[in-house]
Predict the structure.
Amino acid sequence: MKHEKAKKFGMVIDLDKCTGCGSCMVACMAENNVPFREDETDKLLSVAWMRVYKLTNGKPFPDADICYLPRPCQHCEGHHGHSPCVSVCPATATDYDTRTGIVSQIYARCFGCRYCMAACPYHVRLFNWYDPVWPDGMEQSLNPDVSVRMRGVVEKCSFCIQRYQMAKDRAYMEGREDIEEEDYQTACTQACPADAITFGDLNNPHHKVHQLARPDHRNGGKPRAKNLFRLLERLGTNPKVYYKSSREWVRNLGDNHDAIQEKA
Amino acid sequence: MDTALIPKGVKRCPLPQFLAGLGAAHVVLLWGVFAMLLCWLKGLNQTNMNNAYGFAMWIWADRAVIALGGGAFFTGFLRYIVGKDKLKYIINYAVLIGFICYSSALLILAIDIGQPLRGWFIFWHANVHSMLTEVAFCLTAYFFVLCVEYLPLVLENRQIDKVPFFHNLTHNMHEIMAVFAATGAFLSFFHQGSLGGVAGVLFGRPFGFREHILIWPFTFFLFTWSAAACGPCFTILITKITEAIARKKLVKDDVIELLAKISGWMMLTYIIAKTIDTIYWAVVTAPSKGLALSHFYTNNALYGYWILILEVVICGWVPALILITDKGRKNQFTLWLAVILAVIGVSLNRWVMVLQVLAVPVMPFIKWVLYFPSWQEVATTILPVAYGVILIMISYRYLPIFPQEAELNPLEPPALPEDEPEAGEEAAQEAEVQEDQKTGEGDLQPAEA
Amino acid sequence: MKIDRRSFLSFTIGGAAGTALSPLPWKLTDDMAIWTQMWPWTPVPEKGEVTYVKSACTLCPGGCGISVRKVDDRIVKIEGLKGHPVNDGSLCILGLAGAQLLYGPRRVKAPMKKINGKFREVSWEQALDEISKTLADLRSKGEPHTVACIADSDRGTVPELLNRFLRVYGSRNFIRTPSIQDSYELTLNLMQGVRAMAGFDVNNADYVLSFGSGILDGWGSPVHMFKAHSLWREHGGKLIQIEPRLSSTAAKSDSWIPINPGTEGTLALGIAHVMIKESLYDNDFIDNYSTGFHEWKRHIIDGYNPEIVGKVTGVAPSTIVGLASSFARARKPLAVCGRGKGLTPGSLKEFMAVHTLNAMVGNIGKEGGIWAVPEPEYIEWPELEMDQTASIGTQQHRADGAGSSLYPQARYLLNRLPETMNASSTYKLIQVLFVAGANPVYSMPGSADIKEAFEKIPLVVSFSSYMDETAQMADLILPNHTFLERYEDVPAAAGYNRPVINLARPVVEPRFNTMHTGDVIIRLARALGGTIAKALPWESYEACLEEMMGDRWDTLVEEGYWTNTDFAAPQWSEAFETASGKFEFVNKEISSLARYSPVKPEGDEAAYPLILIPFDTMRLWNGYIGDPQFVIKSVPDTVLKKNDVLVEVNPATAKSIGLRDGAYAVLSTPKGKARVKVHFYEGVMPGLVALPRGLGHSAYENNLAGKGINFNELVGPFDDAATGHDAAWGIRAKLAKA
Ligand SMILES: Nc1nc2c(c(=O)[nH]1)N[C@H]1C(S)=C(S)[C@@H](COP(=O)(O)OP(=O)(O)OC[C@H]3O[C@@H](n4cnc5c(=O)[nH]c(N)nc54)[C@H](O)[C@@H]3O)O[C@H]1N2
Ligand SMILES: Nc1nc2c(c(=O)[nH]1)N[C@H]1C(S)=C(S)[C@@H](COP(=O)(O)OP(=O)(O)OC[C@H]3O[C@@H](n4cnc5c(=O)[nH]c(N)nc54)[C@H](O)[C@@H]3O)O[C@H]1N2
Ligand code: SF4
Ligand code: SF4
Ligand code: SF4
Ligand code: SF4
Ligand code: SF4
């Protein structure tokens, strides 16, 4: 088999387009067999791989402004694949795949120590505090490509890894060497009615995501494109989810600035 | 009734009173066990932990208890490696306290993990990059060391010791105890450090994150150092409390003072390092992440600057300065004060390095998350305390823990039965003397003899 | 037997070593890893053959095409249909959760009859028998006009079948649930002389002036609107949102213009005033294709100068001038109205005011403008042959008063029904009511009155697939298949500017003992016999549908939808079917309507110093379908916390009442009272209280039932003087410490 170039799957989320509608959240839940309980209003106990945050500019009426920020797993690369969460897992239940850049989560391996949750600054990792229960009949809509998680393990957005596997299988069956951009798209990207999410290989200059973000791989993947930013850039988590906003206050909320005098 | 089991040359309270005390401790223990079973059967939804607080009271209790149990390895290190021979008079108790602390820590971990039946994955699928892996291996290994160190003590029980096999075993184990002590000290340096590393490596959590020295974050060394410094304080404190409850002296002052002095200097060096660390973190590390010091101590209902001052100044500098002075160590009030402050200080340090790490918002658009433990968490955290009390009660009663006890408390002739009604209940118990006590055996040899 | 220490010890140690070396502990350890993954109660979805079925979402009027992923016979995921003109592969939050409606516990599994207040399962034969007997009875008594039907749409074969059945039976009481469609239809009818739906060429518009329309909160065809908004972002199109609250739409707009609620129409006329003054209008259109402009102009010049309008609306005069200028100078401007998701018809005159803005810039039927989309013409059934009873019955007034001398313009006035019915306690206005695809008991303002009216109806028959609030009040439930189990044509997508027909099809076999509502109607007709049976002669609903679709059937089955790509709005010379053949700013009918004035909120200002307004969001559905599990899960905790709803209040307003963020409060209006929590929101105008619509269900699963409060319980309908439609946009309210 020909040695193929390592991929680096990532996203650009256009916050100017995102309307906060929540389609991405539900698409993800449906695709990935995310459980639900009768009361999901305590968001700190709720499992949702994609979470849409509502940002405010802090100004009073009528200068108030809000912006929605969808937050999947950032699939941090850290330095050389040392994502904040991967390096800490004592049981190797989560992994940074250098061939895809995807941070995986192995439910059957995880023993629920939650160290990875402590490590992730984006609150991406969620613990199954409860047994998953589907009301009688509702288990019928479970997707067999994604295993149902048991109580007591951590889970998170996987960039819909099963779709990548299926795309590869399909390509293989069809005798293709590699998958095309449209072969592998995440459920949230596909569902977004605002087309706010762009997904693809950040290493591939032909992919839209690369063109939008123009990541500077020699500089920790920092975006070169105007108005693009990543969350908590200064931590060195090196995320693969880029955000775009034409509003300065939104871009400013992407990182902490308390101790830094920004150059005008 | 159980007099045959009680070490020679010492007196103990009457069995009914002992059993009553034991019973009380068991009630607390059972409450904890009930909570523990709830957590195992119903899952961790029994706690008030949540997705923001993946670590909470238990992990704090773990870290604190291991730091406090640090008296075992450090006293062992001083006794066997450094050669502070005098410490043999307190080493047994240090080992016992360490044993309790470490077994408690392991128990709490077994409750804390979401999939207890998979707990062994941490060994089987070990990830060498993870601080927790290091913790798990060293902790478990050290626990076995503690067992080995505790075992001869158990075997020295008067009845067990009568068995020649055990007698010889004990003797042989004492011969090689230095090897175990050295191993234990080595292991402890690592797992205490790794526990510090747990928060220190979290480069996504600027409150916990510390820069590296070699491959370890600075907290790695601070944790080992603080455990070595404060662990013995806890040993002293528990000894003092035991003495207060038993109403007699069990360890001679010079032994305590020696340990306190070493502890004091350890604390002083620790707190200097900690102060430098804090300043460096506040001035260099955190700002490099865009965060000013105020970010960590304002805009919330609990974590204010007071916590930093309390930990570093009041519970760090103050006890260190007390314990390095001769006067401070000799004065019972200041000695008590110092060891209590040191214990609070190290526990507080473990608290902030676990909970404040998670409480501080990192993304600019989220808020602080505060947490209050559920009763199940409290009960399971008190469980080890009850268990510790039980183990101490039994060990103290039946094992020769304090080699100096008989010497310090020579036995009086048996009291006349007629005196009993006149004396207060406790006085009567104090007065009761073991039937088979012989004056000549008052000078009991230390356990390691 | 004597066991000495030595042998005991060797036995113990040997035993321990033996056990450790045996396979037992290793096996147990290994098993443990497996046990922990497969607790018997953790479901294990079965693998199987994966197929995709093209179908249609019917959950809202959005008209999206869907692609349903199946694994063997199970539906595991609903996705958007790629290439579909409305939603091209994307889907809204509700559509994505559609499978939960199929498999969830809210299903009605068999025909049900209420006996002594409790539902009992009955056979289809028994249920149909009972209804046809009652219907035959009423006819023999000469009271066929006391039968009515409420449906969520009047288009497509199922609503048409219901309507046809009713007519030939002898009743005109087919009632469509209200929405802005009512007002837009009337506007187009009065000003352009056409019977059409309003379509908006949003993809090509480059300056959208929205008078409170929740373009990104579920207005029109939600997914289509979202996509258009993204196009504006890419091509520099502008969105101006005029609304008292910073909604998602306002937040995404280029300019948010807070306005005193209810005065949107005034602002539209103020903008018109400036456009007239500054001659900022399309001369060609005004001069050659319109009439009445000069008459109308005088009225606008007199009454709506920016100072006056500024005072009423709270919008600065300079802003009004600026809006007029940028709207008129844009290449493809478009003005739209209908608040929020567009559930309330609103004031007709307000719609006409906004429509005149479109007319002045000449965007009627133009690229990026507002189009009159003809009603689907595929349902061509032979003229009805009516018997005597039916003829007499259909000469009676409609029960809701639509088309009466009081409200000649209105086609349907569901909002008026409770008042009429509750006014008299003995007169049986409606004796049998069918409800199809609607949940009026929940979704109509003035819930208490609706319930009272429903209780008066001797036989309420619900066709709902779900145990919703209306079904709970019914005497008989004849559950329809869900949209994933049945054929149905979905003609048109709300607000879409081209004709499109989607075909919903049975993606899976019906799971329960349900029956297609179309088949129920056909069977009822057959049972009643005579002209009624003759009017609905089909073997089955499916046969009827296939016949109606004719040539389109194959395309529909193949593609999942049919659209007329050649469709173009007619030239201005042909577009208007008014008496003058032109666009009419003023005509006899328009002049006969009451003059425009802002609708005042109900209630006394002294007793109720604040104003309660509802707001809509994509995450809360308040039509026929209530949030399924995934959707309610997406609702943030600033809207719903446990069972408490949070009302948005400006911090300044809240503080003046002494309410803290998160505090409990009692919200009261002239219609009702509720316990709420306060959420500080700088995005809501001081003096207002904003409450989300879509909560406060008493039906459905515990995920939704009992959570929050229903806005409709706190508000009543307010009749538009011109049409009788509900024009209420809010109500006076009071917020007090709890
Ligand atoms: N979320 C989730 N996690 C799981 C599982 C699951 O079902 N769900 N299943 C678990 C199971 S059963 C297994 S076996 C493991 C598998 O886990 P892994 O062994 O981690 O499997 P992969 O991620 O498929 O592949 C590992 C790495 O090998 C690289 N690779 C591919 N081909 C070659 C090659 O020829 N040479 C080299 N050197 N590298 C190559 C891949 O790009 C990838 O980086 O995953 C476990 N983890
Ligand atoms: N495309 C692609 N295919 C692969 C691989 C890949 O990387 N890519 N990896 C291959 C490898 S290494 C492996 S091991 C296989 C794994 O393939 P599978 O064995 O199919 O793995 P899963 O998807 O993890 O699990 C399948 C189902 O088993 C359920 N399940 C969990 N526990 C139990 C149980 O105790 N009993 C039963 N009956 N069901 C249970 C889960 O909920 C899930 O729905 O996939 C192989 N196939
Ligand atoms: S689906 Fe798209 S528009 Fe909706 S919240 Fe998610 S990213 Fe935003
Ligand atoms: S976002 Fe969190 S969970 Fe995802 S890779 Fe980064 S640290 Fe890990
Ligand atoms: S919770 Fe699971 S994935 Fe996370 S660190 Fe622990 S074992 Fe690893
Ligand atoms: S990429 Fe897949 S797993 Fe991640 S949030 Fe989107 S849908 Fe969910
Ligand atoms: S917008 Fe309406 S039609 Fe489209 S998917 Fe959503 S509910 Fe269905």
